[in-house]
Structures are given as structure tokens and as C-alpha cells.
Specification:
There is one protein chain. By secondary structure, this protein is mainly α. It is built from ten helices and no strands. The longest helix has 23 residues. It is flat. The two termini are 27 Å apart.
């Protein structure tokens, strides 16, 4: 889970922060208005990927009934939130999806605790490395947007520079915080 989050959180953070330039590059200027929606979707995706392998744990511990409870609780709450939000706006629907994913995360941790012995501080500690990697990865991106804002004349150049800086700092962050990704890269280097 740590390795997955060390990849997905910085990626989704980059997409959220660079959403206008990404949409402009992929689809043209007629889609730039969808950038706030893309930002909300990436936040929902971060919640979704946090415990993506939890289903395998429930199966391995022969506790599929607990996975069913997670689904029943989170999907019922998510359905109600989305139905209520659908009467308002698309942005509110996306916020409801984020809340649904957060509910799913919380209920997953609650039911995992019933089959695996861990404490809630251990879960928080589990998220520290991905959080640190994400913060260090997007630091140059935030600085770039602050000191050299993107505009209609330099957006492609800006997207290229921000992508390269984010990738470089992501790699460095994995080694600084000794993540499983850095361990795998070291193992690959030693085996060759």
C-alpha cells in the first residue's frame, strides 16, 4: 500500500495542480473550463487508491463478509450523498464522490482492524511516507506556479518543465524517505 500511494498520490497531486495545462494539451482550449472538475476527480482517486489492496486482505483472511459490510455502508452513504448532490450541481456531485471515497476508506480501516491487529496511529504512520513523498514531489511545481505562472503563451513549456521537475523530485523523495520503490530500484541496481 505504501508503494502504491508513493506513486499515485504524487501523480494525482500533479494532475490536480496542472489540470488546466493538461486539459489544454490533450483536448484544446474548449476543455480548460473542466479543470476544477478534474481537480475534484483526482482527489477522489487519491482516496480510492489508498487501500486498493484491502479486498485481497479480506479474501486472504476469509473475511469476505466484512468486505461486503464495507461496500454496504460506504455505497449506501455514497449513493445518498450523490443523489442529494445531483439536485444541485456537478461540482457538488464530485464533492459527494470524494466524501463517498473517504467513507469507503474509513470503513475499510475499521473492518480491517477486526481481522488484523493494528492501531490507528500505525495507520496514520503508514501514510506518512507517501505524504512526504507527495509534498516533496509537488514542491517545485508549487514554486514554479508561484514564481513563473502559466499563461496562454507559455503553457506547454510550463507543463514540460513542471513535469520534469516533479518527476526528478519524486525520484529523489523516494530515496530520501527510503520507500519500497527506492528499495526495489536499489535491488535492481545490485542485481545487475
Amino acid at each position: 500500500s505504501v508503494a502504491i500511494n508513493c506513486i499515485s498520490w504524487p501523480f494525482f497531486s500533479f494532475v490536480a495542480l496542472s489540470s488546466e495545462s493538461i486539459l489544454l494539451f490533450l483536448f484544446g482550449d474548449q476543455w480548460v473550463g473542466a479543470a476544477p472538475l478534474l481537480q475534484l476527480l483526482t482527489i477522489a482517486a487519491m482516496f480510492n487508491n489508498t487501500f486498493i489492496l484491502a479486498g485481497n486482505v479480506f479474501v486472504a483472511y476469509n473475511s469476505i463478509h466484512l468486505q461486503l459490510r464495507v461496500s454496504l455502508v460506504s455505497h449506501t452513504i455514497g449513493f445518498l450523498l450523490i443523489v442529494l448532490a445531483s439536485t444541485q450541481s456537478l461540482s457538488l456531485i464530485l464533492v459527494a464522490i470524494i466524501l463517498f471515497r473517504a467513507t469507503n476508506l474509513i470503513t475499510t480501516v475499521y473492518y480491517l482492524k477486526k481481522i488484523i491487529s493494528f492501531s490507528y496511529p500505525e495507520v496514520i504512520f503508514l501514510f506518512l511516507k507517501p505524504l512526504y513523498v507527495t509534498m516533496l514531489s509537488i514542491f517545485p511545481l508549487v514554486c514554479l506556479y508561484f514564481w513563473y505562472p502559466s499563461n496562454e503563451n507559455n503553457w506547454l513549456y510550463h507543463l514540460l518543465i513542471s513535469s520534469l521537475l516533479t518527476a526528478i523530485f519524486w525520484g529523489l523523495a523516494n530515496f530520501i524517505f527510503t520507500t519500497p520503490i527506492a528499495d526495489e530500484v536499489k535491488h535492481l541496481i545490485r542485481s545487475n
